[in-house]
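Please, structure for the following, as tokens.
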Amino acid sequence: MATTKSTVTVPEDLAAYIREEVAAGRFESVSAFVTRAVDNLRNFDPLDLLIADMIAETGEPDESVEARLDAAEEAARRVRGQSGDHAA
């Protein structure tokens, strides 16, 4: 895969987080971290469109759906915390 060198400026707290992730061995380099983060963000675009279509078709989620979503997000945070792995 061809690559291009880019310079980015990020807040110091994010830079520190990225350096910690690289130091912990979760990413090969700062470039690998940024590449995964951007790729993940790009993959959300079609998902956002799908969700918007679903909401247009069925309406906004009700409180029970919101509660299940909150529970699933909390479970995912616990799993990530136990494994020591952080998603980009």
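Residues 12-81 form one domain. The radius of gyration is 17 Å.
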